[in-house]
Amino acid sequence: MKILTKDTFNSGSLTIFIAAALLTIISVFLVYSANHDSPDPRLRDDWAKQIVWFVIGMGVFIAMMRIPMRIHEIFAYVYYAVGCALLLGLIAFGASKFGAQRWYSLGFFSLQPSELAKVAFLFALARYLSYSRRPISNLRKIFTATAMCGFVTFLVLRQPDLGSSIIFTVIFSAMMFWAGLPARYLLLFYTPFISMIASSSMYAWIIFFVLLIVAALLIVRKSPTFTILLVSLNLFVGALSSIAWNHLHDYQQMRIKIFLDPGQDPLGAGYQIIQSKVAIGSGGLLGKGYMSGSQNKLDFLPLRHTDFIFSVGAEEFGMLGAMIIIILFGFLFFRGLKTALKVRSEYMGLVTIGATAALAFQMFVNIGMVVGLLPVAGVPLPFVSYGGSSLLTSWILLGIIANAERNWQEY
Amino acid sequence: MIDLTTKSIRGKIVAGIMAAIFLLLVGKLAQLQIVSYDYYFQMSEENRIRLVPRTAMRGKIVDREGRTLATDRPAYTVSVIPSEIRQLSRLSEELAPLLSLERKTIEQKVKERRSRKYEPVPIRRDIEFASVCIIEESNELFPGVMYQLDHARTYPYGNIAAHIIGYTGEVDERESKTQFRIGSMIGRAGVEKQYDQPIRGIDGVDYQEVSATGRILGSLQSKPNKDPIPGSELGLSLDLDLQVLCDSLFGDSLSGAAIFINPQNGEILAMVSKPNYDANLFSGFVPRDAYQQLSTDERRPLLDRVIRGTYPPGSTSKLLTAGAALELGVIEPNTPFKPCYGGYQFGNRYFKCHKKSGHGSQDVYGALEVSCDTYFYQVGLKLGLKNFSDIAKKCGFDVLTGIDIPAERAGFVPTEEWYNKAYGKNGWTKAVLLNLGIGQGELLVTPLGLAQFYCGVVNNGNVMKPHLMRYIKSANGELTQATPEVARQLPFSASTLAILKEGCRRVVQGGSGTAARSRIEGIEMGGKTGTAQNPHGNEHALFCGFAPFDKPTIVGCVVVENAGHGSVAAAPIVQQVFIRYFQKTGLLAPPPPPPLEDIVQL
Lengths: 411, 602
Fold this sequence. Notes:
The complex is a heterodimer.
Chain A: H1 11-35, H2 46-66, H3 69-74, H4 76-93, E1 95-97, E2 100-105, E3 110-111, H5 113-131, H6 139-157, H7 162-178, H8 183-198, H9 202-219, H10 224-247, H11 250-260, H12 269-283, H13 294-297, H14 309-342, H15 346-370, H16 388-406
Antiparallel strand pairs in A: 1-2, 2-3
Helix pairs in contact in A: 1-2, 1-14, 1-16, 2-16, 4-5, 4-6, 5-6, 5-7, 5-15, 6-7, 7-15, 8-9, 8-10, 9-10, 12-14, 14-15, 14-16, 15-16
Chain B: H1 7-35, H2 37-45, E1 49-54, E2 61-62, E3 68-80, H3 88-99, H4 103-112, E4 121-127, H5 129-137, E5 145-154, H6 162-165, E6 168-170, H7 173-178, E7 185-187, H8 190-194, H9 196-200, E8 204-210, E9 216-219, E10 233-236, H10 240-250, E11 256-261, E12 268-274, H11 288-296, H12 305-308, H13 318-327, E13 343-346, E14 349-352, H14 364-370, H15 373-383, H16 385-394, H17 416-423, H18 431-437, H19 447-458, E15 462-464, E16 469-473, E17 479-481, E18 486-489, H20 494-509, E19 526-532, E20 540-547, E21 554-560, H21 566-569, H22 571-585, H23 596-601
Parallel strand pairs in B: 2-10
Antiparallel strand pairs in B: 1-8, 2-3, 3-4, 3-5, 6-7, 8-9, 10-16, 11-12, 11-21, 13-14, 15-18, 16-17, 19-20, 20-21
Helix pairs in contact in B: 3-4, 10-22, 13-15, 13-16, 13-20, 14-20, 15-18
């Protein structure tokens, strides 16, 4: 089978490809600006390596697009098993970096199994949800799906890699929602987390309960028992977490506060965020010009070619440049959503929405972090951050979306 | 009811969420890049910021008359900012002789702290001014090296009260993850540790502008420095006069412990553990061999004997034996026992009294006065092990006193179960009771625990929690005072306590009292001597005393290791400290001025 032919792309998948390719090209330029004159000689060629990864990424993308989805459907559980096995193996043999076991060292490349597991989990959960004949509101089905997510998340959390493990739960939530999980379960699943956070302030907590009761009554009017259950669960979780909070030592509370608001620790975690905000803010509308970002050039921006690459772009190209990056992402995600709505096969729809959610969430967490909206989580920006693992996974996920886009008529 | 079963509604919800996220991000970008552009642009222009922590002054520690026991003095600290170092090996080679450190030490310190590489790593505290000048003159040569005016802890009185005050040390990498800035000083022992939180204050930050090569251009205009908030002053209940006197009474040759407490509120007036060490050794830069030497010294100067040394109480615990027996009605004050002819025959063993010729017949007062072992062998036997351990536990002999310095140890009260476990069910006899009755054997106390018991006896059975902190005064004058706390109640009635006190009075004031030689002219006092058998060498001398007899304001407990009988070695120390104490309170006439010759010599 010839892979590259005249009909490799249809118009939809071609625009997806072009948008992502633009992001990766921007990435190469930004990595060059960030690192080509770095005091550390090992970083100076990163831009060239990023080009190599780009080429490999495109190949993987086209392969993902052309391999019939049916194959991934058949092997979905095998992927899942392999993914989990690799994660388990990591606990035994993985290379340790920064005290966490996150990858296998393959010499030329360090393989990060949590990235592969993400894709495998996507396929497996989609297969389970679309094959099982039980309705989505069936408790046993919900339980099995949760267990599939829980197991792999646990393995990733063991590394420990908080950022990645959250992505698994986001993929899970998006797919369950797409599968039509009734709103009451969504409420039951997610409101306790909000209650936990809201309980830090009495006012916020009261407002939260007012909204909760309104929402519960609106969504499930028929069942007051459910409302009582929901409210008491939230009361319990909220009360428990504020009791737990009061039992923490001052310094433990401080740690959590700093995680949530790095500004409180200007010498530690806050340093990166302060510098990143200065970089972005000082870029203004049009930026300081390519390779002239003083924050970037003078070494004030930490991890600027990976986690903080967006700040480099926003400093040198201003709001205009930042908007271009955001709009390209926005285009990709709305395309993904459109595809998920369009496809006829339930399996494909689930896979597409999961892949879109994974990419969108990473983008949101990364940009949210560098602009100071969200805690520092160490999640790279898809397509733009330097790094083979991240880039390949992004292209694989996009390949899945493009595949669905090309073959939307299949059942 | 919202229906999520149709795809188009789900699609709209997802689209809505996505739009909200994009609006949020774009809004934040607009806020940073358009609304606050001027502010951030200004910052980036001036952003050759270096954040230099400014260590807060640690609070002073003072005695009850305001004399300084610990304070910070200015000193220079040399630090290195890892992110600004070009070549570590070259830098360490040039710095090493200047700081009188080894190259390896410098490199290790820098590498250890790679995780926060924008933050200065203190390399050497308390460096000589000459080295500061060299670094200042050639700072272009040493990119990333900086010096700061910092503080070094000093203890003006050196060895005096070293165990109580403790010392400080640097926060290491591991601790910095949970608590404080790496390289900052933290209390490691004594009240420095116990009250570290209030004493340490809150560090400030200087925002300095530096050139790309690391030269300091000045402080940042747009961002005001955060001034450090100095730590609180810690006022101790300690009386330095008594502390110094007590320390000198032990001298350099004697080992042991002494503790003086106000029984009415638990304030500790003096607390000496000998031998001790110079706390200044630990402040700033600790030479490794000095610490090594201290920690391997056979006389164990690092051990705080007052709170961690456990000794058999010897005859000082006859108060416990008598109290338990009286309280439970096992004996009356004048219950007749076999007279003392120099010992007591139990089964096929003969237990000797300390007086070979014997004491004859005694009531409980007399037995306490002369510390007759024969009498207390019989009381112990009559009391029984269970009663003895119960009362000892109720008196708090096996729990912590609750003193406000860390690492206290509790005493030990043996029980029937313990003997069964230690010697087997039939491996021991009632003979252990004879030993327990006179305070030898398995009962172990810390000097502080013993003192606390005596405090309870003379304070109507109310056992106060001993404490060193009198007040904490924050930098803005806010005062927190210690409140006396009752730790527990002795299980003795007022009449029992009165009998015990009277016995103690006769020990000192009585004609044949064992501590008659240590009586003080003009003050009525009570006490009890003790001599603890020591399998490793000479007997330990003990004495617990209190005065004035009617309403005691001071209780003293002294243990002198390997010094023989309590009346000879321990009681005189208590006597001397009491005299000084009552001279200060005005109950005794002030000491006569030193003879003229001494003044002339001075």
